[in-house]
Amino acid sequence: MTFLRTVSATEAVGPVREMYMRSQQQLGYVPNYTKAFSLRPAVMDGWVALVTSIRSNMSLRDYELATLAAARALHSSYCMLAHGAVLAEKVFDPLSVAQIALGQVDAPLEPKEQALMAFAEKIASQANDITSSDIEKLRVLGFSDEEIFDIAATAAARCFFSKLLDALGAEPDSKFLEMNSPLRSALATGRPISHEPVEIVEPAQ
After folding, report:
1. How far apart, in whole angstroms, are the C-alpha atoms of residue 169 and residue 77?
2. pLDDT at 205
3. Which residues lie closer than 8 Å to 189 by C-beta, 6 or more apart?
4. How far apart are CA 4 and CA 48, in angstroms?
5. Can you spell out the DSSP letters for 26-63?
6. Rounded CA gap, 145 and 42, in Å?
7. Residue 17: how many other CB atoms lie within 10 Å
8. Distance of alpha carbon 87 from alpha carbon 94, whole angstroms
9. Which of 18, 113, 145, 177 counts the most CB atoms within 10 A of its CB?
10. Other CB atoms within 10 A of residue 105 CB
């Protein structure tokens, strides 16, 4: 659900249907976050272009860790669940991701990754307090200025997406209820997961 009217999968036509189909091809269903953009599908196009350009300069691991850190600072269940799932499937395992999400000291992170996440989290929670010393700490650990820009862009972009979804009342998809329970509990720290069945766009007749 969202607080605003959305276009259902059965009613979608034109650019909205095309947007729904792209998400369905990726996930197997139309996620609630995509439906939240159904009144302005061109904004989704802009978001996809932005995040694609940012991700193209980063490894999957660094991008997902920076995103998870920013989403944690924003208390975004949706983004924590989505990107935690990617980390659990493609980088770590469910237990490790739960440890990372909870900020446990025994989480399997390198010092550079701990610093990356701390920087991304600070951007999402209090970017106005960042000083040159924060940047210098990253440089000392071996981050180039270009890489620091990428982390900052990732965290700042997540602020747009997470805050928009929460402002519209978009609930994480019920598919996340199938996730490993300890991992789900560690990631769903904000808006609760929906219990509504996911929607599917049927093939054109």
Report:
1. 12
2. 61
3. 72, 75, 77, 80
4. 22
5. HHSSB-HHHHTTTT-HHHHHHHHHHHHHHHTTS-HHHH
6. 32
7. 18
8. 8
9. 113
10. 7
Q: 30 phi and psi, to 5 degrees?
A: -95, 110
Please name which of 6, 13, 59 lies closest in space to residue 201, comparing C-alpha atoms.
13
CA angle, 181 then 198 then 187, to 5°: 30
16: left (phi over 0), alpha (psi -120 to 50) or beta: alpha
pTM: 0.95
Look up residue 114 and give its amino acid.
Q
Amino acid occupying residue 47: W
User: Which amino acid would we find at residue 156?
Assistant: A
**H/E stretch holding 98:** helix 94-101
CA distance 8 to 116: 39
**Strand partners of residue 30:** 199
d(CA 124, CA 29): 29
Token pair of 126, please?
């209090």
Q: What sign results for the dihedral spanned by CA atoms 195, 171, 89, 105?
A: negative
DSSP single-letter state for residue 75? T
Residue the block writes with tokens 């054109």:
204
**pLDDT, position 12:** 97
Distance, CA of 160 to CA of 158 (rounded, Å): 5
pLDDT along the chain (205 residues), means of 10: 94 97 97 98 98 98 98 98 98 97 95 98 98 98 98 98 98 97 96 96 80
Q: Which pair of structure tokens corresponds to residue 75?
A: 């208390």
